[in-house]
Amino acid sequence: MDYLAQQLINGLVLGSIYGLIAIGYTMVYGIVGMINFAHGDIFMIGGFIALITFLVLVSFGLTMVPVILLVVLLVSMAVTALYGWTVERIAYRPLRQSFRLAPMLSAIGMSFVLMNFAQVSQGARVKPVPPIVTGGYTLHEGSDGFVVQISNVQILVVVTTVLLLGIFTWMVSRTRLGRDMRACEQDQTMAALLGVDVDRTISMTFVIGAALASVAGMMYLLYYGLVDFFMGFLAGIKAFTAAVLGGIGSLPGAMLGGLLIGLIETLWSAYFSVEYKDVAAFSILIIVLIFMPTGLLGRPEVEKV
Fold this sequence. Notes:
Distance between the termini: 54 Å
Order of helices and strands: HHHHEEEHHHHEHHH
Largest sheet: 2 strands, antiparallel
Number of strands: 4
Helix content: over 70%
Shape: globular
Strand order of the largest sheet: 1-4
Number of helices: 11
C-alpha cells in the first residue's frame, strides 16, 4: 500500500502537467474545431524560455527562490504567449476558410519549424538544470522501511495546476472574453453579427492556451530538471490523448484525461513493464472511445440545420 500511495502521488503530478497542456488542445478545438498540432512544441518552447530566464537571473546574482520562480513564470508565459499568437496568425488565420485539412497540415508544419528552431538555437543535447525547489515531507514510513514522500516541487506542480484551472474556469464562465469564447464555439457567424470580434477571440484563445502550456513547461523543468528540443512531440501526443480521453472540447475533461493518463503511465511502469506504458495508455483510450465515443465528459455534437 505504501508503494501504491507513492505511485499515486507521482501519477497525479505527471497528470497535472499533461492536463495543463491538454487544456490548450481542447480550447482551440472547442472554438475553431481544429487541433493545434504545434501546441506540444509551444510547451517545449515554454520550458526553454523558463530555463534561459532562470540562468539569466542566476547570472545577475538573484538567489531568492520565490522571486526567481515568479519572474520565470511571468517571463515564460509572456514570451510563449507571443509564440501562440504567431502560430495562430501564420498557420491558422489565413487558412480558416479553406478546407479542414489545410490548417491541420499547416500546424504540423509549424510544429516541425518550432522543433528545428529549438534544435538549431539551443542545440540537440539535453539541457539539465540543478534542483531549484528542494525539500519535502514524509507522509508515512512502512515497517519494511519504504517511505512515502511528497516533495515541495510536487506540491508546487499540483497547487499551481489547481489554481490555474480555477482561474481559467472562472474566466470562461464569468468574464466578457469567456462569453465571447462560448459564443464563437456555438456559431462564429452569428457571434460576429452580434458584435463579437471573432478574430480577436480566437487569437486570445491561442494566447491563453500557449500561456498555460508555458506553465506546464516550467513545471516539467522543475520536476524533471531537464529540457530538450524533442520533448514537446511526445508530451503533445500524450496531452492530445488526454484531451480526447476526457472529451475534446471539455475543460474539466481535459484535466481529468491528463490525470488518468499520468496515473496509467505511472502505475503501469511501477507494476509492469516501463517499455509498454504508452501501449497501456493508448489501449485504454481505445477501449473508452469504443463505449464512449465522445470521451468521459464530452458532449454529443449537435448538427446545426
